Amino acid sequence: MKHSARAFIVSLLLAAPVAAQSLDADVRAVASMGGEPALVGAAGLMANEEAILSIENRSAFEPASAIRRIVIVGGPGSGTAESVLNLVRWFKRDASARVRRDWALSALPSWSAKASAEGVATSAERAIDPQLERWITFQVPDVLVEVRDDNQSLGLQTIKSTVIKSTDGPKALENIVAAAPAGPSDLRSQMIGRASRRPIDVAQVLARRYPGTPGISYIPSVAWTNTMKLAQLTGDSTLTAKVRQQTEPWTSGSQPLFADRILLTSVAGTMVFADLGGDARRLAAEGARLAVASKDSGIAEYGQGWTDDMFMSSAILARMGEYDAAATRLTSYAARLQRPDGVFMHATDGPHAWGRGNGFAALGVTELLTVLPENHPARGGLLEIYRRHMAAVRPLQSPDGMWREVLDEPGAYREESATAMLLTAMARGIRLGWIGHDYDATVDRAWLGVLAHVKGDGTVIDVCTGTGSGPTKRYYLDRAAITGADDRGGAMALMAAMEMIALRGR
Q1: Could you give the CA distance from residue 235 to residue 351 in angstroms, rounded to a whole number?
Q2: Domain, as residue range, for 224
Q3: If DSSP codes are grouped into helix, strand and coil, which group holds residue 344?
Q4: Are residues 155 and 201 in the same domain?
Q5: Under 8 Å CB-to-CB from 243, ≥6 apart: which residues?
Q6: How far is CA 459 from the centre of its chain?
Q7: Checking CA distances to 448, which of 49, 57, 249, 421 falls within 20 to 30 Å?
Q8: 3-class DSSP state for residue 300?
Q9: 314 vs 317: CA distance, rounded Å
Q10: Does 213 share its domain with 159?
Q11: What is the tens place of the pLDDT at every residue in 464-477?
Q12: Where would I find the beta strands (DSSP E) of 269-421?
């Protein structure tokens, strides 16, 4: 390679981070201007783990809002990012009062700033990036505008875009708004339908669908225990019959409770037998006996030392009255895994704020506090752990109400199970007086986010796959997002729906 060519490549590598820093500063400056949109979010991550910043508002999933939504994405081209920012400036400062009254805007200034592993901007690809498709879809546009200096288009299946050039200016956007068809787009109509559902309607769908694969594990058991709550609330005996039929192989003794290797995730599955009551409680008692066991290090005998263990232990111990053991377990784990800022890292060898890992920690403490006597000596300390956690995760909520797959990574995808779990813990805290009603808006926004990620047939969108501990943040960021029928995501959404019923009514 000639010296001049090498120098050119090096200059690109050095310039890319500087350019990204400059763009990020401009995005934040425009967001801070008066008016909406005013929230800095992120649509994804560059290869170097830098967040690709967006400017958003809180109204994406508001079902009652008559305001229409326009989403602008900057594509390839040297001037597209600045052009998008100029369009946002125009909207906030110079657009007519009618436009600002009738429309909400979200913008992604430069998807083409996404960098390859070598740090050089990638060329446009024909296939839309999943990160970009996810962001556009859940910004719920009535009108999608691409600012590009080529003649291509993203080709998104859910909504057709209009392409303008970076030189066209605000007048082009004004004309698009003026010519927009009346009424919401098909995409937004679909999302309004999801977000308009009552908690009990969603719970009915999820309780009938999950678990798809019965077994002695925490996932089916979360679905079963909440299905029984729904049955008690509605008087629907068919729901209780479903749970009894699916758990019969274990209550009858025709199948052993555990495999040769006992795991705490399976031990937690015995919580359903505590709720079934009667003779089934003998199986819950066996689960509690195993959950109490600890290694010399204080880690659960059948656990891994992850935040997962906090819920797996507490779910069965709290139900069986093993309050001292549960309190000791939770306090010990929090001492090791709760960061000074209140967020939980997943494990000592996985020191990252995995979303569902924080959900496990929150639910573990919540399960015990729900039944722990007011005069128990550990109650004050557990309340402090809980309150610090809730205060820490509240500002990490994304603009649309979701929590992310890695909580403190703005470019991580917005994840269904973590949102449902943190919502449940927070909503119960409001209902039982552990935290104040200043958390109401956070819970209500999170619920709209869950609704948006649960389709009418009960399939779920963007549930992080099963995850062990990993030493790097990249390990967690690369965990796949499952969309479709998923027992884990369905069970957690059902639990959230039942908690919303308890807090807000049907």
Answers
A1: 45
A2: 197-504
A3: strand
A4: no
A5: 224, 227, 228, 231, 272, 276
A6: 15
A7: 49
A8: strand
A9: 5
A10: no
A11: 999 999 999 999 99
A12: 403-404, 414-415
Is 192 inside a domain boundary?
no
Question: What CATH number does residue 178 fall under?
Answer: 3.40.50.2300
Query: What are the Cα distances from residue 279, in Å, to 189, 215, 220, 289?
Result: 49, 19, 20, 17
Question: What does the alpha-carbon distance between residue 415 and residue 356 come to, in Å, rounded to a whole number?
Answer: 8
Q: Is 470 helix (H, G, I), strand (E, B) or coil?
A: coil
The 8-class DSSP code of residue 162 comes to: E
Is residue 4 domain-resident?
no
Domain co-membership, 103 together with 237? no
Please state whether the predicted TM-score (pTM) of the whole model is above 0.85.
yes
- Per residue in 307-347, pLDDT (tens digit) is 999 999 999 999 999 999 999 999 999 999 999 999 999 99
Q: Is 462 left (phi over 0), alpha (psi -120 to 50) or beta?
A: left
For residue 232, tell me if it sits in a domain: yes
In angstroms, the Cα distances linking 470 to 28, 240, 348, 476 are 32, 39, 10, 7
Token pair belonging to 83:
């052009």
Tell me which amino acid residue 394 is. R
